[in-house]
Amino acid sequence: MIRLLASLGRNVLALLAAVGRVTLFALETVSHLARPPFYWREFGHALVQIGWLSLPVVGLTALFTGGALALQIYAGGARFNAEAVVPSIVAIGMVRELGPVLGGLMVAARVASSIAAEIGTMKVTEQIDALVTLSTHPMKYLTLPRVLAATLAVPVLVAVGDSIGIFGGYLVGVTRLDFNAAAYLKNTVDFLEFWDVASGLVKGAVFGFIVALMGCYYGMHSGRGAQGVGRATKAAVVSASVLILAANYILTEVFFAA
User: Fold this and answer.
1) What distance in Å separates the CA atoms of residue 225 and residue 156, rounded to the nearest whole number?
2) pLDDT number for residue 239
3) Which of 5, 36, 75, 234 lies 20 to 30 A from 111 at CA?
């Protein structure tokens, strides 16, 4: 019994220490915003890599999700003669939850792994040490541009994904479920409120921050060799995904709790 409690205590302490390290890393990253210089070229490169190049996978995910959501809601609503709610529920479900969460998870899978592998490889090959010898702060050059770019780019991806997801539901509703096109669009617009859309964009910004932060953190703390980089990449994706789901619940509780 004593050994079990001791093992549990060690795990809890290790978890708290990890949370503390990530928090300090995040605070240090944000603090560099107020201290020059700022590397615009790195920021622009990160913006293209995280935003523009993630658009196809986010768009395809949203399109199929919106279509599947329309089919599921129609099948469920038919049990209660409530098929007419399909347009409004698809729109609200996409902009509040599915758009931000699925977009964040897809970006985490693509971007967190890429950032962790890139920075981890730079650490293994001593390129980060070379930056220090050139009087360039690694956090300012590598971490801040990526974190800022993800925080700004992911809400845009979420907005585009929301639109594509709603369009996917519209296509299925009109072509497969025999909805009137004009009535479907009218129900979508009438039931959407400003805060429904805004809350999803806020979630997107938070998820983007988490994704880039986890990629940079695990890249900076990567072990030596190919195995160390592989472990850092895996840990970055897993941590970012779990934190996105946890943050989604917390933000939903804050935004929509009665």
Assistant:
1) 36
2) 93
3) 36
Handedness of CA 228, 229, 234, 239 (dihedral sign): positive
Contact status, residue 103 vs residue 62, Cβ threshold 8 Å = yes
Judge whether 3 lies within some domain.
no
Higher pLDDT, 35 or 175: 175
Query: How far apart (Å, rounded) are the C-alpha atoms in residues 62 and 81?
Result: 27
Domain count, the chain: 1
Which DSSP state fits 35?
S
Within the chain, where are the H helices?
Answer: 2-31, 40-50, 55-77, 86-93, 99-107, 113-124, 127-133, 138, 144-175, 181-191, 194-220, 225-256
Contacts of 141 (CB under 8 A, 6+ apart): 39, 42, 131
Lowest pLDDT segment from 75-84, 92-101, 190-199: 75-84
Query: Is 157 inside a domain boundary?
Result: yes
Q: Is residue 96 part of a domain?
A: yes
Backbone angles phi, psi at 37, to 5 degrees: -85, 170
Peptide bond into 37 cis (omega under 30): yes
Taking the model in full, what pTM does it have?
0.92
Instruction: Give pLDDT tens digits for 142-182.
Output: 999 999 999 999 999 999 999 999 999 999 999 988 888 89
The encoded tokens of residue 124 equal 């293994």
> What pLDDT score does 187 carry?
87
Give the domain extent around 127: 40-256
| Residue closest to 113 by CA, chosen among 30, 231, 24 | 231
Q: Compute the distance between CA of residue 160 and CA of residue 177 in angstroms, rounded to an integer.
A: 24
